[in-house]
Amino acid sequence: MADMNKIFWRTRKPVRNRFQDRVAIVTGGSAGIGRSIVEELAREGAKVAFTGRNEEKGKKAEEEMKAEGLEVMFICGNMRDEAFCEEIVRKTVEKWGTVHHLVNNAFSFLAKGRDATREDFLEVYETGPIAYAKMMQLTAKYMKEAGFGSIVNISSISAHIGQPDRWTYNSAKGAVNMLTVCAAMDYAFDNIRINTLSPGNILSEATTRRFREMTDEEVAVALQNRPSYELLERSGQPVEVAGPCLFLLSDEASFLTGTEYMVDGGNLTLSPQGMPSKDFVYKRRDEYKN
């Protein structure tokens, strides 16, 4: 059985106390990108409420983070439920008094194309952009009272590219991008910044589940032989999304709003012809040197 720590090996050095006395909500924070954002925010001093649909997984994540000394709270429920969105904010404010930061991350990965039903679209849109909008509306009240706030909406490179059998997911991610722009305009004079973060191919529990039954050597070969969609010739890790997300939330990004940050390893930079071979690149480089 493979050592998963050899797959998710990257770490980052927290910026000490950057979010001290700040309160944040992260939806879909039990695993993957969401959990990494929760952990990194809490390591930098924030009090973080996070959500998930799987109570067992969420409670386990909460226990592990609390054992590290992090101040977090798990709230179980489905983002499609408007009453649950209200419950998240209510419980967070009851416990910590306000909300300064929001990361909308929970999203249904239901990808359907020609066979997509009305219910399929409702599942993705109600969990995604509609819940994103509701959470912004609910938390903005407290950010305005505090005099500032910042929101990051997690989108995807799939908002920019066509992919077969992905009518539901890709169109909903595209909606997130435009939602961010419009919301940023409406909340700018309340000193609430809203930006989009769009990851590319990021390793997660779901995408690495098959590795658990492999040897370390088999995993190394599988990762090496995967199609290369990035200039960096590898997939990203959740913590590599968390770092840029924390930057956008922080005061260091005080002049950034209504924009989109790509965290895709250069995926969208590649032309349709893909990445030129290293032999070609090195040959041209040597020619220029001469």
Structure description:
The protein is α/β, with parallel strands linked by helices and 290 residues long. It has one domain: NAD(P)-binding Rossmann-like Domain (Rossmann fold, 3-Layer(aba) Sandwich). The protein has nine helices and seven strands; from the N terminus they run βαβαβαβααβαβααβα. It has helices at residues 32-43, 55-67, 82-96, 118-127, 129-146, 167-187, 216-224, 238-249, 278-289; strands spanning 23-26, 47-52, 72-76, 101-104, 149-154, 192-199, 260-263. Strands 3-2-1-4-5-6-7 form a seven-stranded parallel sheet, sandwiched between helices. Helix 1 links the parallel strand 1 (23-26) and strand 2 (47-52). Helix 1 (32-43) crosses helix 8 (238-249), helix 4 runs parallel beside helix 5 and helix 5 (129-146) packs parallel to helix 6. The radius of gyration is 20 Å and the shape is globular.
Defining key terms:
Rossmann fold, 7-stranded parallel β-sheet, 290 residues, single chain
Q: Strands across the major sheet, in which order?
A: 3-2-1-4-5-6-7
Identify the CATH class. Answer: Alpha Beta
Supply the helix-strand structural class: alpha/beta
State the helical fraction.
40-55%
Total of domains: 1
* Main sheet attributes: strand count, strand direction, barrel closure: 7 strands, parallel
CATH architecture: 3-Layer(aba) Sandwich
Span between termini: 50 Å
- How many helix segments? 9
Number of strands: 7
Q: Could you state the order of secondary-structure elements as H and E? A: EHEHEHEHHEHEHHEH
CATH topology: Rossmann fold
The CATH H-level superfamily is NAD(P)-binding Rossmann-like Domain
